[in-house]
Amino acid sequence: MLTSVKRQLRARVGLWPLLELRNRAVLGRRVPGLRRFETAEVRRLRADVGVPTALVVTVIPTFRRPQQLRCAVRSALAQTIQDHRVIVVDDGAGVGPLPADPRLVVVSLSHNTGVLGLVRNVGIRTTSSEFIAFLDDDNEWRPDHLETALAGLRAGADLVYTAVERRRSDGELVDTLSTDFDRAQLADGPPYVDSNAIVVRRSPRVQFSRIPRVKATLPKEDWEFVYRMSRSLAVAHLPVPTVRYLINTDSFYTSWAEQHG
Q1: How many C-beta atoms lie closer than 10 Å to residue 76's C-beta?
Q2: Residue 223 region, left (φ>0) first, then alpha (ψ -120 to 50), else beta?
Q3: CB–CB of 260/247 below 8 Å?
Q4: pTM of the predicted protein model
């Protein structure tokens, strides 16, 4: 009987929304405290660095990856879109030397949280822009990533995501993730939207889940963000591979299973 009910619920709602409901019930008790910490950090950092403003702001969360971070930052600063600011948000571990560029802002949380959504939210809330992009500290963009994404947004979408080349640490191409948006498929199929490929029109709703997730927690922040945003925003896929994603089994926040084809 219970198995039959589970099947009916999955058929009606989808696997990932059901698992996210479980996450909220089991892990959500920490969210109010994390929200208060996030707000206090935003207030503190705005007093320190002001409110960086541009057409596009790129948020890069980081934790103890100095070499990879430098590569990620360089790829963000090399974009063909010039009206662009990059904010690196360090999750309380400290940041090594980075390129000297007036478009780059680096801030550090007062202590480590291990909550990726919160770290991204600090970057979102500490800045001002028409559009927001996301890049993790171990991934890179092609120089035309933002230009490609902004063309899609100016064509009428509120959130766009490009195709993602997934590569091993030696540079070997594993596959290219490129799937047109289908909310029903997103609810029950393999996750196919990665935050590194997302550029979104800024609004007060553009914030990530603060649920503290570990590697084993499913679904991930990226899925929750896109699924929630797609309730009210127009989402479009741009099948242009502008993201180079490192398959990193030692990621502090998360890891991906290989998907071929």
Answers
A1: 27
A2: alpha
A3: no
A4: 0.92
Structure tokens at 83: 């009206």
Domain boundaries defined on the chain: 2-246
> Alpha-carbon distance 133 to 243, whole Å?
12
Alpha carbons 201 and 224: distance in angstroms, whole number: 17
> Residue 132 corresponds to which tokens in the numbers above?
């927001």
Q: Could you read off the pLDDT of 96-148 as tens digits, one per residue?
A: 999 999 999 999 999 999 999 999 999 999 999 999 999 999 999 999 999 99
Instruction: Kindly give, in sequence order, each residue whose CB lies less than 8 Å from that of residue 164, ignoring residues fewer than 6 positions away.
Output: 176, 177, 178, 194, 196, 197, 241, 243, 245
Tell me the backbone φ, ψ of residue 70, rounded to 5 degrees: -60, -40
CA–CA separation, 261 vs 256, rounded Å?
15
Which helix (H) or strand (E) element contains residue 77?
A: helix 66-77
**Burial letters for 146-156: b for 16+ Cβ neighbours within 10 Å, e otherwise?**
bebbbebbeee
CATH number listed for the domain at residues 2-246: 3.90.550.10
Q: CA 202, CA 125: separation in Å to the nearest integer?
A: 10
